[in-house]
Design a protein that fits this description.
With 273 residues, this protein is an alpha+beta fold. It is built from six helices and nine strands; from the N terminus they run H-E-H-E-H-E-H-E-E-E-H-E-H-E-E. The protein has two domains: 122 residues, 60s Ribosomal Protein L30, Chain: A (2-Layer Sandwich), CATH 3.30.1330.60; 126 residues, OmpA-like domain (60s Ribosomal Protein L30, Chain: A), CATH 3.30.1330.60. The radius of gyration is 27 Å and the shape is elongated.
């Protein structure tokens, strides 16, 4: 049975890997109220977390090296509390906030009279650390999805050539995609036991038709794009006996944003020992 990248989504499971995001809010000297520009930056940061799976939120307040230890501990705690108060007016689950701590002063590591004010201003801050769970899809063979050419590939697998982008309506790739395609060629040259078909796809046509190639005026854009990749790999030393190419028109849309349908895939057809 062919195992395409898309059918895996129906039979795959997932787990979470931990990662983190960070944000810093800066304060005026001896102040714990948040200035408007910093408040707006903070709210934008919090809004960006709406689609994230949060494990824990840590909030740490700091001061510059002026003032007594006791004064700085109190001020840094007030700054941390001020940030927590902003979270209270958002959709954030406050139970996720694990630490709201004032850490006191940050000592200057080196003294340069020209830079001392700048260094101190950077130490008057609150650091916000968001610990995240990142969802990772795993297929029935224990492989992370989406598949890449570095995966332990099987016959029937399809790998999308991610970030290999074509000029709209044309069969040649954008300049910034050339290094990516060059790396793909190197991997395929190294994995000489893989035999494959380059498959071109297009978006936004009716009745599964192909799109028009603006360079030739012919309605075979998916075919032309697959051929472009084939020829590029051929020039980079990939044996033509290992490769075929085909245009699949608009027969296999992925769903969602149509830009992802403008793609080229590699389907593994044989693996030689």
């Amino acid at each position: 049975m062919h195992k395409t990248l898309f059918s895996f989504l129906l039979i795959s499971t997932f787990f979470y890997a931990q990662t983190s995001l960070n944000h810093v809010v800066y304060f005026d000297t001896d102040k714990f109220n948040i200035i408007e520009t910093e408040k707006n930056r903070l709210i934008n940061f919090i809004d960006s977390l709406n689609n994230k799976t949060i494990k824990k939120i840590n909030i740490y307040g700091f001061c510059d090296d002026r003032g007594t230890d006791q004064y700085n501990l109190i001020l840094s705690q007030k700054r941390a509390d001020a940030i927590k108060n902003i979270f209270q007016f958002t959709n954030t689950d406050l139970n996720l906030i694990s630490n709201v701590d004032g850490k006191g002063e940050i000592l200057l590591k080196k003294i340069n009279t020209k830079d001392i004010n700048t260094l101190r201003s950077l130490n008057r801050k609150v650091e916000i650390e968001i610990e995240l769970f990142e969802k990772i899809n795993i297929d029935e063979y224990g492989r992370e999805l989406p598949l890449t050419l570095e995966s332990n590939l099987l016959v029937g697998d399809k790998v999308i050539l991610k970030n290999v982008l074509f000029e709209t309506g044309y069969s040649y790739i954008l300049k910034e995609s050339i290094p990516i395609l060059e790396q793909i060629a190197l991997i395929l040259k190294e994995k000489s036991n893989l035999y494959f078909t380059v498959e071109g796809h297009v978006c936004c046509t009716s009745f599964e038709r192909d799109a028009v190639d603006r360079g030739t005026g012919k309605r075979n854009l998916s075919f032309s794009r697959a051929r472009f990749i084939y020829n590029y790999l051929l020039k980079r030393g990939i044996d033509k006996k290992r490769m075929k190419y085909i245009g699949l028109k608009h027969k296999f849309p992925l769903g969602g944003d149509s830009k992802f349908d403008r793609r080229v895939e590699i389907e593994i057809t044989s693996i030689k020992n």
